[in-house]
Write a structure and sequence with these properties.
Length: 231
């Protein structure tokens, strides 16, 4: 379980996160919603350790990881699918997937079969360069690369952005499958409300670097979430 407790984050003099508290449980999807520029990506960056927080704490399975560096968090099982995908365009699909080997022990450095069962197109394009793939295929590659790490916490930053509807359905099926395994906590940053409502178990709406609204699936009201996002 991930617990983010009352964290603050600054970029120089500008405060990006203000007392943010959220959690993510294995077998559940926590959706972080809000307009552009409200702090969603900054929250994920704080979780993976790309930027140090100036207050609060972050724990994973009860262990304080607040002071750990990104590679140390990756070794603990935190996988990130960044906004914009950030695949290596000159590497092949296979080589891109193998970049996920970094935090793994030598005996675990192989591509799990589930990557290809979830995204069959990747297997058929192993020798193609990443930059030659469509945007949707690159997004599948970015998710596959994160899964190669065997994450216990998977962070997805707007995976539907600029993606064609058929690929969005593939991504939704993949997230549903990963949740069903029961051993991966998923944090989904998203602006596509219908996609989030279809998949989410817990919902958080952010504004100006702070959490302004939260609910779980049992009292989910998409209209209220939409209103909170618009305010």
């Amino acid at each position: 379980m991930l617990k983010v407790d009352n964290i603050n984050l600054y970029y120089g003099a500008a405060q990006a996160l203000r007392g943010v508290t959220i959690s993510a449980e294995a077998g559940k999807v926590t959706c972080v919603l809000g307009r552009n520029g409200v702090g969603k990506t900054s929250l994920l960056r704080a979780m993976v350790g790309q930027y140090p927080i100036s207050g609060g704490s972050i724990t994973l399975d009860g262990a304080d990881i607040t002071g750990l560096r990104p590679y140390e968090r990756a070794r603990l099982g935190i996988g990130l699918v960044p906004q914009g995908r950030e695949i290596f365009p000159l590497l092949t699909v296979e080589e891109n997937l193998k970049t996920g080997f970094g935090p793994l022990k030598r005996q675990d450095r192989y591509i799990p079969d589930e990557v290809f069962s979830l995204f069959p197109v990747l297997q058929s394009m192993l020798s193609r360069r990443g930059g030659d793939l469509s945007g949707g295929q690159q997004q599948q590659l970015a998710i596959g690369r994160a899964l190669v790490m065997r994450p216990k916490l998977l962070l997805l930053d707007e995976p539907t952005e600029g993606i064609q509807p058929s690929i969005i359905k593939d991504i939704a099926r993949a997230i549903t499958y990963l949740r069903s395994l029961g051993n991966i906590a998923i944090v989904l940053v998203e602006q596509y409300l219908d996609f989030a409502c279809e998949l989410g178990d817990n919902f958080v709406v952010m504004d100006r670097g702070a959490v302004k609204f939260a609910c779980d699936r049992s009292n989910l009201d998409p209209g209220e979430i939409s209103r909170q996002m618009a305010l």
